[in-house]
Amino acid sequence: MLYQDQGNLLLIVFVSYFGRKLHRPIMIGVGCAIVGLGCFLMSLPHFLMGRYEYETTISPAINLSSDSFLCVENRTQTVKPTQDPADCVKEIKSLMWIYVMVGNVIRGMGETSIMPLGISYIEDFAKSENSPFYIGILETGKIMGLLIGLLLAYFCANIYVDTGFVNTDDLTITPADTRWVGAWWMGFLICAGVNILTSVPFFFFPKTLPKEGPEDNVDETKTGREEKHRERAKEEKHGITKDFLPFMKSLFCNRIYILFILISVLQFNAFSNSLIFLPKYLEHQYGKSTAEAVFLIGLHTLPPVCIGYLLGGFIMKKFKITVKKAAYIAFCLSLAEYLLSLCNFLITCDNFPVAGLTASHDGIWQPLHVESKALADCNTRCSCLTKTWDPVCGDNGIAYMSACLAGCEKSAGTGINMVFQNCSCIRSSGNSSAVLGLCNKGPDCAKMLQYFLILSVILSFIYSLAAIPGYMVLLRCIKSEEKSLGVGIHTFCIRTFGGIPGPIFLGALIDRTCLYWGTRKCGDAGACRMYDINSFRRIYLGVPAAVKGSSYLPAFFILTLMRKLQLPGEINSSETGLAEMKLTEKDSKCLDVHRSPEVENDGELKTKL
Predict the structure, then answer these.
(1) Nearest to 180 by CA among 262, 283, 65, 93
(2) Biggest alpha carbon distance in the chain?
(3) What share of the chain has pLDDT > 70, as a percent?
(4) Radius of gyration for the chain, computed over Cα atoms and rounded to the nearest angstrom
(5) 3-state secondary structure of 70
(6) Beta carbons within 8 Å of 607's beta carbon, 6+ residues apart
(7) Residue 63 confidence class, pLDDT cut points 50, 70, 90
(8) Nearby residues of 515 by Cβ (< 8 Å), 6 or more positions away
(9) 426 and 396 in contact (C-beta within 8 Å)?
(10) Closest CA to 8 of 34, 29, 26
């Protein structure tokens, strides 16, 4: 995501500005094709690198009848997956990440033309009262694409990464295991083909569309035509780049626009943090696999968002809500959604019971600040590896970091159906057996997950219902000729300051809650296998809540400023130019740029009118 944002940032301001003067549909089509190329490049490492090997004490190469990975007394040597040092160094120095980086950068560059030019294309040729509804449909289409993408991710995540290259019957992990890696490359290949096919229709769109709706009178039609001829003559005389700096200066002197960017940066920072780490949160908080988490996210959040976007745009169109009223509606709905989201702090589950980490070998919960002790009286005779994560779930409801540490002496079956027996650390009736994987969380946790999902549906609907009125404030607070550039700068800022630093910072804080780190082939720390879920929850929910809460201060300032200004959405379309001039009247000092006498006379004429 970081590389994608960097590619987006390289071009978005310039594409947003020059795209308005060029053929916008063709540029959108080219952007879709470039996105497809980037997705294809990102899938290449799977076909150019070796097979994935997960951390385990059990290997198909081992003679399972020897039970060499189980508890054996007085064993001088333990079975450990060997790794040739040369291969280890080669893996570390692998350059496959370059394909992912370049593909992400190219994908980000392709995305620069799609949203800014698409929105400005709609805004230029739609009636002002219909524009919110059209943009709502556009946003709904974007969310539908995200929903389809999440369903595709669910499908791919349930398929083993090396399917077709390895015998999946020998696997000892399931999609619920943190060591599982799904067929990530398959989704990128599908997206590459879809994006290239999607780009084709845009090449047949016209450069301009007739303005929607009948004109009010003949004088208004003449005025519009004269204004268009004046703008064309101005562009031809001053060149395609002459008004770039004046537009930039005008935008950055627009106080409402700058405050709106600040709000967007803060809220997008909170939103991106929550969305990126939500699958991991559901996985560790509620015991769901990554595939299940992705499916639940798509099923319970995206449909309400689609309904909210459409309903918000329809309400704006039906009741012809002015910009000031839209600002108040967006503020109140967003604040209600924020306050309601704080209820997530109350929807909690306990940590997984793992002997030596969160519980003792006797099944008693222990404080997490106590030093982890994988070895106990029941397994000290077994000569077990203590740095390997290969968990098993005992009949007593407690998980152990490996079958050896559970004191298991026998095994039956192969693959994920393997059962371990005669486990000395498992004190229960019968033969004290264990199966692969962590133990499932209880029914109380499943009930908490239902509450979390129901709340997510409500929050997603309120969030999307406020989005269209809020976005119309952005589009109506800037002049029509600056709209494409203004949307581009807005996207640039939220990608730069909202999308890049937030996940890095939050990810570093979440890593501090890790209880057990996996081990890579070369012996260094790998991915986190177990988190302190209570600390995880406080950081995951608390940091975005604090960031989003701070966004309501500049939002209050916008409401205060808008009381004193006359905005385009509150008057007839024939007076839009005058209203746009009044919007920036107090900031006229910022517009002291080098202008030709014709431009100055044109401004005087508008003032007199």
Answers:
(1) 283
(2) 101
(3) 76
(4) 29
(5) coil
(6) 581
(7) very low
(8) 357, 358, 368, 372, 530, 531, 532
(9) yes
(10) 34
The Cβ of residue 140 has, within 10 Å, a number of other Cβ atoms equal to 20
Contact 16, 484 (CB under 8 A): yes
Domain ranges, ordered by start, for the chain: 2-81+95-209+236-349+444-562, 352-440, 568-608
pLDDT tens for 385-431 read 777 888 999 888 888 988 888 888 888 888 788 888 888 888 766 66
Residue type, 281: Y
> What per-residue confidence (pLDDT) applies to 585?
45
CB of 251 closer than 8 Å to CB of 489? yes
Bridge partners for 516 per DSSP: 530
- Apex 276 CA angle, 270 and 281, nearest 5: 100
Structure tokens at 477: 């607070």
pLDDT of residue 562: 87
* Structure tokens, 527: 């991915």
**In 3D, which of 417, 424, 419 has the Cα closest to residue 434?**
419
Q: Which two tokens stand for residue 323?
A: 């910009």
How many whole angstroms separate alpha carbon 372 and alpha carbon 358? 8
pLDDT in tens, 48-61: 888 888 877 775 54
Bridge partner residues of 318 (DSSP):
none
Cross-strand partners of 410 = 421
The CA distance from 152 to 187, in Å, is 7
User: How far is the CA of 216 from the CAs of 56, 166, 212, 380, in angstroms?
Assistant: 75, 70, 12, 90
Interacting residues of 582 by C-beta distance below 8 A, sequence separation 6+: 565, 566
State the Cα–Cα distance between residues 162 and 583, nearest whole angstrom.
59
pLDDT per residue over 421-469, tens digit each? 888 888 766 668 889 888 888 788 999 999 999 999 999 999 999 988 9
* Residue 330 CB burial class (10 angstroms; 0-12, 13-18, ≥19): buried
SS3 348: coil
Q: Are 411 and 419 in contact (CB under 8 A)?
A: yes
Residue 334: CB atoms within 10 A of its CB come to: 23
Q: What is the pLDDT of residues 259-271, one digit of tens each?
A: 999 999 999 999 8
Cβ–Cβ under 8 Å, residues 439 and 393: yes
CA nearest 366: which of 256, 515, 263? 515
Phi/psi at 63 (5° precision): -75, 105
Percent of the chain with pLDDT over 90: 21
Q: Where are the beta strands (DSSP E) in 43-132?
A: none
575-598 mean pLDDT: 43
Which residues, in sequence order, are CB contacts of 461 under 8 Å at separation 6+? 304, 305, 307, 308
Going by C-alpha positions, the residue among 572, 585, 569 that lies closest to residue 477 is 569
> 96: buried, middle or exposed (CB in 10 Å: 19+, 13-18, 0-12)?
middle
C-alpha angle 352/358/359, rounded to 5°? 100
Mean confidence (pLDDT) of the chain: 78
Which tokens is 54 given? 């997960």
Class of domain 2-81+95-209+236-349+444-562: mainly alpha
Cα–Cα distances in Å, from 395 out to 45, 176, 189, 271, 363? 41, 19, 43, 41, 12
Is the CA virtual torsion 573, 598, 475, 585 positive or negative?
A: negative
What digits encode the pLDDT tens for the residues 359-382? 877 666 666 655 567 788 888 888
